[in-house]
Design brief:
Radius of gyration: 23 Å
Structural class: mainly alpha
Largest sheet: none
Order of helices and strands: HHHHH
Helix content: over 70%
Length: about 110
């Protein structure tokens, strides 16, 4: 939901000849952040295992179900926290336009051409 606007806003800050570099960096970050799915599964498994270790009686199917529920709940709470932080940060995205060549020269970045 937010990736495309953030991608466009980020690339708008670059000169046209630097878009390929910016695109490569953003693509790398996207792949790295996609690994958060694996982290969610790890959080779920760790939380479920911790619940099962706290059980003092025999492990029944109901207790296993409860452990899975606790693990899923913990994982979704972490995901909700990340989504909330992302939403708050998205409120600070400003619409921008690409810098003009003469603006970059005026601030001393003409050497990037």
């Amino acid at each position: 939901m937010l990736f495309t606007p953030i991608f466009a806003t980020g690339l708008n800050q670059l000169l046209a000849n630097l878009h390929s570099h910016g695109s490569a960096i953003v693509s790398t970050l996207q792949q790295w952040l996609a690994q958060l799915d694996s982290a969610a599964v790890t959080i779920m498994a760790t939380s479920s295992a911790a619940y099962l270790q706290s059980v003092t009686t025999g492990i029944t199917p109901e207790i296993q179900r409860d452990a899975l529920t606790v693990g899923l709940h913990t994982s979704f709470m972490v995901a909700t926290g990340i989504a909330l932080i992302s939403f708050i940060l998205s409120l600070f995205i400003r619409r921008s336009s690409p810098p003009q060549e003469d603006e970059m020269v005026n601030i001393g970045m003409g050497a990037l051409e």
